[in-house]
Amino acid sequence: MKSPAMIIFDYGNTLIYEKELDLERAYKALYAQIHKNPDKIDFITFYEKGMAIFEKVKSRALQNDVEIHTHNFYNCLFQILNVEFNLSYTELEILFWEALAPCRAMPNIEKLLLFLEAKNIRTAVISNIAFSEKALTARINKYLPRNKFEFIIASSEYGFRKPDCLLFEAALKKACLSADEVWYCGDNPRADVIGSAALGIKPVLYTSSFACPYDNENHISPDFEFTKISDWDELIELIEG
Q1: What's this model's pTM, rounded to 2 decimal places?
Q2: Distance CA 59, CA 118 (A)
Q3: The domain 6-17+104-240: what is its CATH number?
Q4: Which one, of 146, 143, 163, lies nearest residue 155 by Cα?
Q5: Which of 61, 173, 179, 184 is deepest in the core (most CB within 10 A)?
Q6: Cis status, amide bond into 163, omega within 30 of 0
Q7: Are 199 and 221 in contact (CB under 8 A)?
């Protein structure tokens, strides 16, 4: 099998394992950073308004593969409640995310990335995520400090989510590569396998033994052949042939 010129990875449950999503804990971390609160909004009001806005995001955007940037979400929440912060939106995102989802690198991913670097196989990331590209990059660099990702694409910056081909098209342009030179690895059959294959990129479905704290649509079965692995060592073996 011919080796790819580049492998692009999904983020969640692919590069990084987030074992839980604790929204109340995340909102408490955010609430603790309020600098001005003239209307004396209490935590319950803050939390419930945030969750109400998020329900609108899920029903109107996420179900239609549209991404609402966290900064837009913050604009709604903070201005409606008339609260202000000293931290930037990106700093607040990072703080919120750390409280929301404790995480660690997936098993053997660091080994794989070093192997790809040694083989001169380029790497990058495309993630369906509301957090900003800056926050996503900071998180990846924190937990995979030796990575050599050439670029990191967050759907928040584009307005569309995988499986929309726009994110994959943007990645190919950034890489200056054709689709047949690129592989895409992710854990979601619809977003990652169907999405990348539609553009001619070779999809690799990664299915780990860890429970995913969100719906990664693993009930979907693409109606074409594709590569499936359950450990990153398998990808090393596949490339070495």
Answers
A1: 0.95
A2: 44
A3: 3.40.50.1000
A4: 163
A5: 184
A6: yes
A7: no
